[in-house]
Amino acid sequence: MGNIIDTIGNTPLVEITKFHSNRNVKIYAKMEGNNPAGSVKDRAALNMIRSAMERGEITKDTKLIEATSGNTGIALAMIAGIYCLSLELVMPVTSTRERTLTMQAFGAQVTLLESMEICRDYAEDKAATGDYFILNQFANPDNYKAHIKTTGPEIWRDTAGKITHFVSAMGTTGTIMGNSIYLKEKNPEIQIVGCQPTEESSIPGIRRWPEEYLPKIFDASRVDRILDISQKESTEMARELVKREGIFAGMSSGGAFAAALKVANEIEEGTIVFIACDRGDRYLSSDLFA
User: Fold this and answer.
1) What is the pLDDT, as a whole number, of residue 1?
2) H or E element: which one contains 191?
3) Residue 225 belongs to what H/E stretch?
4) In angstroms, rounded to a whole number, what is the distance separating the alpha carbons of residues 64 and 241?
């Protein structure tokens, strides 16, 4: 028996069966929406808060602040509430209403600003006053270390070490960095594939960062290949996943799946795992499933 934090991780690995005919190529979705706050970011949020508390950087009197596009913020709000920590989340005004309401339900203060870059600057400026502690998922090693501790080992275990390709959307890049470190240590031949939006596309949870905002935790040498995915592809694949496979996930998951299918169509045999990073109900007020 434990509290809700103890249910983070050990998410299912579900085979995709209706999108390709080569039986020698297996595609699996890592179902991160099954985490209690609904996304892969539960892992990083827990590791960032818990590790900072263990180091004495955070106490009950600390005021936390973080810029987020949504999923990290929801996870932080849940975990901060459990630890009785004050939290301000700074999010783009374009974020879906469900995200704002969920963060507030967990007890966080939400500030909405024009863009993700402005949100990051705002949070860093507030932290610089000394009155707030910024978790800074974009530069915090505890972000990717969560996946070295949990996600990578789970994928290796549940594929019996047969994984040949790991596919992930890239936002803060914590998920792809941590899994790359772990999986490459187990087998250097595993291909790490990231996906980013095409120049003209806007995909929640996947970013094509300007150079000055590139996450500091990102190490390009740990990614074997980056695929550009369009907004149209991400939308269509998210819709097809729920209709044909019953996997209800968001646009970034659709983008990662689109990348996984591209890889599947190029190889004769292999085991591909992609991150289905959150749940589709987080997008119902948008036109994603309209």
Assistant:
1) 64
2) strand 191-197
3) strand 225-229
4) 36
The C-alpha atoms of residue 181 and residue 202 are separated, in whole angstroms, by 28
Q: How many CB atoms lie within 10 A of CB 86?
A: 16
Separation CA 173–CA 196 (nearest Å) = 10
Using CA atoms, how far apart are residues 78 and 64, in angstroms rounded to an integer?
A: 13
pLDDT at 283: 86
C-alpha span between 140 and 159 (Å, rounded): 29
Nearest Cα to Cα of residue 248 among 34, 55, 48, 80: 34
User: Which stretches of the chain score pLDDT less than 70?
Assistant: 1
Residue 93, pLDDT score: 92
Residue 111 Cα distances to 81, 108, 118, 120, angstroms? 17, 10, 11, 12
Active site residues: 41, 252
Please report the pLDDT score of residue 152 as a whole number. Answer: 98
Do residues 282 and 252 lie in contact, with contact meaning Cβ atoms separated by under 8 Å? Answer: no
Q: Tokens representing 92? A: 């783009």
Say which amino acid occupies 261. Answer: L
DSSP 83-98: TT-EEEEEEETTS-HH
Closest by Cα among 213, 137, 136 to 177:
137
Coil vs helix vs strand at 151 = helix
